[in-house]
Amino acid sequence: MTPKQNFAPRVLEWFDQHGRKHLPWQQNKTPYRVWISEIMLQQTQVTTVIPYYERFMQSFPDVYALARAPQDEVLSHWSGLGYYARARNMHKAAQKLVDDWQGEFPMSQEGVCELPGIGRSTAAAILSISRNESLAILDGNVKRVLARYHAVPVWPGERKTEAAMWQLAESYMPSERCGEYTQAMMDLGATLCTRSKPRCGECPLQADCDGLATGTPTDFPKSKPKKAPKPVRTTQMLVLRDGDQVLLEKRPATGIWGGLWSLPEVAQEDDVVQAAEQRLSVNVQHVISLSPFRHTFSHYHLDIVPSELAVKNTAMVAEQTKYQWFELQQALQLGLPAPVRTLLETHEQRRQLI
């Protein structure tokens, strides 16, 4: 992959005319504000992120506010975005910035990479956009632009190919207007050089794009070699209610839905009444079977079979401190996995109709 001439000037000229300049994180571009946006935008579309970002900034306007906030509060602002390790790492990184760096981001890319949840490309984006550092990024959008522009014949995530693409990205990085160029490359991939239906006729790089020259630009970048089909797991979720209260379980700090409040679960083959009475020390009055549904993670499908149980005698055994009763409206303010939030909101809607 040999660098081509006049790459950055064309991209910047296009950005001046067509780039996005009014997104919330493009105003007052401090390292903190850029960092939060970059983490939220991982695996998530801009339109989804905007309201989350605005609410997050209202509650945590600076790194000190984020560092001193309880993890539950941070996770509640993340509820629905998925990939919750991002929020947990963000919270840890904020505390490290306050404790070790007096609330300021390190000046070097290496220093920023030492913060939890921040890799090479994210660190470069933070420093480039907020401080105009000449540091190349290689996120999904940029990788697609470069792989298509050079018609890279293999999957760009392969280690040797990715290393070559890093060299390419660095060779195109200008020494001036670095932050605008970084934003321009993101915008180019997000708005024109899209995965399907790219708008090649509007692209500033169309004249010498190798992918376009083949006549089938969407053949690039090459797809990742297919894995085996995702496995399917099944669980039963219990919506235990005592009047207006619901029982929630605090998930372990790590793993799926780490640190979030969830609904108690039992194995697929368990009798829900027996399991609830034996494990949770409740007396079940009646049971309503709810519609099963599927929730998909990055590496497996989870088939959820929910049941709503009206219960009495809600005193929990002393050692079961991970369980807690909440008023329903209070529960909906917590950090909840998306399918749990859906179940509780459905329960609330049904309760209001009674």
Automatic annotation (TrEMBL):
Requisite cofactors: [4Fe-4S] cluster
Q: Which GO terms describe its molecular function?
A: 4 iron, 4 sulfur cluster binding; 8-oxo-7,8-dihydroguanine DNA N-glycosylase activity; adenine/guanine mispair binding; metal ion binding; oxidized purine DNA binding; purine-specific mismatch base pair DNA N-glycosylase activity
> What Pfam families does the annotation carry?
EndIII_4Fe-2S, HhH-GPD, NUDIX_4
Catalytic reaction equation(s): Hydrolyzes free adenine bases from 7,8-dihydro-8-oxoguanine:adenine mismatched double-stranded DNA, leaving an apurinic site
Do the record's keywords include Acyltransferase?
Answer: no
Keywords of the record, alphabetical order, are:
4Fe-4S, DNA damage, DNA repair, Glycosidase, Hydrolase, Iron, Iron-sulfur, Metal-binding
Q: Which PROSITE patterns match?
A: ENDONUCLEASE_III_1
The UniProt entry, under CDD domains, shows:
ENDO3c, NUDIX_DNA_Glycosylase_C-MutY
Q: Where is the HhH-GPD domain?
A: 40-191
Q: Does the keyword 4Fe-4S apply?
A: yes
Q: Where is the signal peptide?
A: none
Alphabetized Gene3D superfamilies for the sequence: Helix-hairpin-Helix base-excision DNA repair enzymes (C-terminal), Hypothetical protein, domain 2, Nucleoside Triphosphate Pyrophosphohydrolase
EC number in record: 3.2.2.31
Binding note for cofactor: Binds 1 [4Fe-4S] cluster.
Identify the InterPro entries for this entry.
Answer: A/G_AdeGlyc_MutY, DNA_glycosylase, Endonuclease3_FeS-loop_motif, Endouclease-III_FeS-bd_BS, HhH-GPD_domain, HhH_base_excis_C, MIG/MutY, MutY_C
Record GO biological process? base-excision repair; mismatch repair
Under the heading NCBIfam families, the entry gives: mutY (TIGR01084), PRK10880.1 (NF008132)
The role this protein plays is:
Adenine glycosylase active on G-A mispairs. MutY also corrects error-prone DNA synthesis past GO lesions which are due to the oxidatively damaged form of guanine: 7,8-dihydro-8-oxoguanine (8-oxo-dGTP).
Family per similarity comment: Belongs to the Nth/MutY family.
Q: What is this protein called?
A: Adenine DNA glycosylase
Species of origin reads Marinomonas aquimarina
